[in-house]
Amino acid sequence: MRAYDIIYKKRQGLELTKAEIEFLISGYNNGEIPDYQISAFAMAVFFQGMTSRETADLTESIINSGDKIDFSKIEGIKVDKHSTGGVGDTVSLIIAPIIAYFGAPFAKMSGRGLGHTGGTLDKLESIEGFNINLTSKEFIEKVNKNKVAVMGQTAKLAPADGKLYSLRDVTATVDSVPLIASSIMSKKLAAGADGIVLDVKTGDGAFMKSIDDSFKLAEEMVDIGNHLDKETIALVTNMNQPLGEAIGNSLEVIEAFETLKGRGPKDLTDLCITVAGHMLVIAKIFDNNKLAENEVREVIEKGKSLDKMKEFIAGQGGNSRVVDNYDLLPVAQYKHQLESPAEGYISKIEAEELGKIAMMLGAGRAVITDSIDHSVGIKVHKKQGDRIKKGEHIATIYSNEDKLNSNIEKRTIDSFHVTPTKVEKEPLIYGVVTKEGIKK
């Protein structure tokens, strides 16, 4: 078997066998197949695509390139949740104690934020003493004791994915649905989940900009999961504006706590209820989504999972008093309130631009080795469809600079589009993808 022949076959649009895909991925991971041939393979996939079976085989080959986490010692059905990335997305932080409250294990391996999207680990590290560097043994013990734990992903998990992504990043082959799907699912499945709920973001602040492409990606990932005998569903959700009102690590942690107290933004609360409902059904805690969502809503409205959140934080070395005392979180020295230059209705909010501005303030990183400032960020005071008066506060910048950079101020204000006529709010959830098909 030769890499040349496999590349040529895919270039011609023919379907590869499982053995051919395994030969390429294992050979590349072991250093036997050079970068330039895998780059050619990625470009062939970009133009010719892959069948569902090929994509599942590619995912499995990437999984087999490194360690697989054995979570068999964790009691119960382990359901993971993954978001494709957005702005203000604190869903994982909110649903973790909720899932645990109902007795289902929330065992999550998570990553750090990069670019304009935030990372769950960075948010949790806003909390004094919180430790994400757990061994597998410690992680399993904490999940069995508290039903919830979060740890960082090990570099030994699906290492071929990291190598392949680095090539895709410099060869204009990142936005290929089979390659994106296999990249995401290889890490999730190698991390030992029994089932997965995917939140595929679509729109301005998401990686996938179009709804059609987002549904294609969701279908591909659901097919992979179910092909590999893991119950998988995907939600396609709106990222044409930030989720919730907070952008930035400590600000988002506060918003998560407020949501668990029943005082969170409606869009964030509603999405958490839907995601948690699906997870609890897959975990066999409830028989149907309507019942599960009603129970989750009650838990949020009555603050029933707050003790579980404190237990979660304390279990990983953090100061659990932070749930009731936000002054224990990093606090920016200055608040710069920005005013609307016009009167009317918010027609659009540029989510990606606000994410980039938060990164410029220090809340995010351009490369994975950058350090971040947990205290800074942006608070959005108006959302799409809201009425605003001229001079009314449209956003607040949290910064450690006493004088706000004029470019940041202008770019933030310009991210809010105001129109004189009332606009309809876009849906929060565009549809659900299961192995049975798409329900919009």
UniProtKB/TrEMBL annotation:
<dbReference type="InterPro" id="IPR018090">
    <property type="entry name" value="Pyrmidine_PPas_bac/euk"/>
</dbReference>
<comment type="subunit">
    <text>Homodimer.</text>
</comment>
<comment type="similarity">
    <text>Belongs to the thymidine/pyrimidine-nucleoside phosphorylase family.</text>
</comment>
<dbReference type="InterPro" id="IPR000312">
    <property type="entry name" value="Glycosyl_Trfase_fam3"/>
</dbReference>
<dbReference type="Pfam" id="PF00591">
    <property type="entry name" value="Glycos_transf_3"/>
</dbReference>
<dbReference type="InterPro" id="IPR013102">
    <property type="entry name" value="PYNP_C"/>
</dbReference>
<dbReference type="InterPro" id="IPR036320">
    <property type="entry name" value="Glycosyl_Trfase_fam3_N_dom_sf"/>
</dbReference>
<feature type="domain" description="Pyrimidine nucleoside phosphorylase C-terminal">
    <location>
        <begin position="345"/>
        <end position="419"/>
    </location>
</feature>
<dbReference type="Pfam" id="PF02885">
    <property type="entry name" value="Glycos_trans_3N"/>
</dbReference>
<dbReference type="GO" id="GO:0004645">
    <property type="term" value="F:1,4-alpha-oligoglucan phosphorylase activity"/>
</dbReference>
<keyword id="KW-0808">Transferase</keyword>
<dbReference type="InterPro" id="IPR035902">
    <property type="entry name" value="Nuc_phospho_transferase"/>
</dbReference>
<dbReference type="GO" id="GO:0009032">
    <property type="term" value="F:thymidine phosphorylase activity"/>
</dbReference>
<dbReference type="GO" id="GO:0006206">
    <property type="term" value="P:pyrimidine nucleobase metabolic process"/>
</dbReference>
<dbReference type="InterPro" id="IPR036566">
    <property type="entry name" value="PYNP-like_C_sf"/>
</dbReference>
<comment type="function">
    <text>Catalyzes phosphorolysis of the pyrimidine nucleosides uridine, thymidine and 2'-deoxyuridine with the formation of the corresponding pyrimidine base and ribose-1-phosphate.</text>
</comment>
<dbReference type="InterPro" id="IPR017872">
    <property type="entry name" value="Pyrmidine_PPase_CS"/>
</dbReference>
<dbReference type="GO" id="GO:0006213">
    <property type="term" value="P:pyrimidine nucleoside metabolic process"/>
</dbReference>
<keyword id="KW-0328">Glycosyltransferase</keyword>
<dbReference type="Pfam" id="PF07831">
    <property type="entry name" value="PYNP_C"/>
</dbReference>
<dbReference type="InterPro" id="IPR017459">
    <property type="entry name" value="Glycosyl_Trfase_fam3_N_dom"/>
</dbReference>
<dbReference type="GO" id="GO:0005829">
    <property type="term" value="C:cytosol"/>
</dbReference>
<protein>
    <recommendedName>
        <fullName>Pyrimidine-nucleoside phosphorylase</fullName>
        <ecNumber>2.4.2.2</ecNumber>
    </recommendedName>
</protein>
<dbReference type="InterPro" id="IPR000053">
    <property type="entry name" value="Thymidine/pyrmidine_PPase"/>
</dbReference>
